[in-house]
Amino acid sequence: MAMTIGVIIGNRDFFPDRLVSEARRDVLALFGQMGVEPVMLEENETKLGSVETWEHAKRCAELFRAHRERIDGVLVTLPNFGDEKAVAETLKLSGLEVPVLVQAYPDDLGQLGVERRRDAFCGKISVCNNLRQYGIPYTLTTLHTDRILSDSFRTDLADFLAVCRVVRGLRKARIGAVGARPGAFNTTRYSEKLLQAAGISVSTLDLSEVLAEAARVSDDDPRLRAKLEEIRAYADASGVPLEALTRMGKLAVVLEDWMARNDLDATALQCWSSLQKNYGVNCCTVMSMMSERLLPSACEVDVTGALSMYALQLASGRPSALVDWNNNYGGEQDKCVLFHCGNWAKSYLPDATIGTAPILGTTLGEQNTYGALAGRTPAGPVTFARISTDDGAGRIRAYVAQGRLTDDPLTTFGSRAVAEVPRLQRLLRHICRQGFEHHVAVNLSECARALAEAFRTYLGWPTYWHEGEDGLQG
Questions:
Q1: For 34-67, how does the pLDDT look when each residue is reduced to its tens digit (9 = 90+)?
Q2: Which of 10-14, 68-72, 180-184 has the highest mean pLDDT?
Q3: Can you tell me the distance from the alpha carbon of 175 to that of 305, in angstroms, rounded to the nearest whole number?
Q4: How far is the CA of 116 from the CAs of 103, 108, 124, 209, 407, in angstroms?
Q5: Most CB within 10 Å of its CB: which of 263, 305, 314, 433?
Q6: Fold of domain 3-170
């Protein structure tokens, strides 16, 4: 989906006008290359479409208000010093509560005369000072000054767009909770009220209703036939009995219909033990298929785990998975084994086969656990994220980290991977000291920076960024 960014071009009248026109051309060129739609003043509405007076601020704010439902974020570009008060007043008058990126052009050492002098190095500090005074949160570029058409700013803008997607998506997220959490899993408890205060709604559904509705889906229902074809095309199901496959298909039909009726973005399911005892299958494949279609689904009614998966997906545009921090990897202190029974999206399991869940099978009967996916995730980048409600402190908090998955040997079953994270022991100490869950959401991308910025700056959640280069890890 194309994104829309409001643009404020700052200006100060005793600097060269040509710098404003050049910045406008740069913005339009970069946005065109990246598929971003701009909302900005026309050149004839103010002095070259810039903002430097109270009257300009009112006009720009009016334009932003007219497009407030479409604007995902705002870029403030300073081709010269700019008028810091006009920038802040524009944002205040607009009423927008979206991320703001502040960019400033660098001066050329050979062009510090009045004809090309910018002073945006200084102007950016003044703009940020005013935004802070006005209570407007903002994002900085990696370099204090940078050109719009540089590779480094292109990366900054891509990260900023990810921040905008996360903020907009989480502020109106709708999560489905199906069934009760497993009785032994206090770790998946959460505060629905804290989530609602952040704009995140939870819709609940009793598992008995799902199973009763699934029983009413006839074997010749065209929805079921289509779903069975989809499952067989999704992963190797040759070892699954037709009866178990049919139950999985009916379960998928019911859950997907409920999600569509309630406009849900993600789900968290009671994946054991009632399902196996009363229905006779695992729901792992059904969950995997939803996650692959960018409708993330988390195990064990882990609602904040599902929310973490959704946040990663918003940042990267790719499917997420929920994993256990599960095993040490021999004596290598920066490596560990990630594991779950088998509901990771197919993107993670190119060699996926549908079978049983051996661990659950030891107590529930292996014949009742068909539906678990087995496979190994290949080497590549990975981002970790966990959102949690700290009920005692009355707040939402999080942590993010990056690492890589490796091809190190691993002989076991289920959905599995080997991860390498710099200074992993420090991260694990933080998880344990702060009482975070054993579940963590993962995404095959590098988006920790965008998540940390979205969580901290715009959602106001204390966030530990493991190995974050800004040093703000608390």
A1: 999 999 999 999 999 999 999 999 999 999 999 9
A2: 68-72
A3: 10
A4: 18, 8, 17, 70, 54
A5: 305
A6: Rossmann fold (3.40.50)
Q: Tell me the residue type at 157.
A: L
Residue ranges, comma separated, of all CATH 3.40.50.10940 domains in the chain are 3-170
Q: Give strand pairing partners of 373.
A: 354
pLDDT the model gives residue 472: 47
- C-alpha to C-alpha distances, 44 to 40, 56, 126, 303, nearest whole angstrom: 12, 12, 27, 51
Give ranges for CATH 3.40.275.10 in the chain: 174-465
pLDDT band (50, 70, 90) for residue 469: low
Tell me, what amino acid is at 290? M
Which has the closest alpha carbon to 274: 405, 368, 194, 150?
368
Peptide bond into 201 cis (omega under 30): no
Contact 338, 417 (CB under 8 A): yes
Residue 16: band (very low, low, confident or very high) from pLDDT cuts 50, 70, 90? confident
- With contact defined as beta carbons under 8 Å apart, do 206 and 179 qualify? yes
Instruction: Report DSSP letters for 74-124, one per residue.
Output: EEEEESSS--HHHHHHHHHHH---S-EEEEEPPPPTT--STTT---HHHHH
Phi, psi of 203 (to 5 degrees): -105, 130
Question: Would you say the pTM of this structure is higher than 0.90?
Answer: yes
User: Is the pLDDT score of 237 beyond 90?
Assistant: yes
pLDDT above 50 for 325:
yes
Fold of 174-465: L-fucose Isomerase; Chain A, domain 2 (3.40.275)
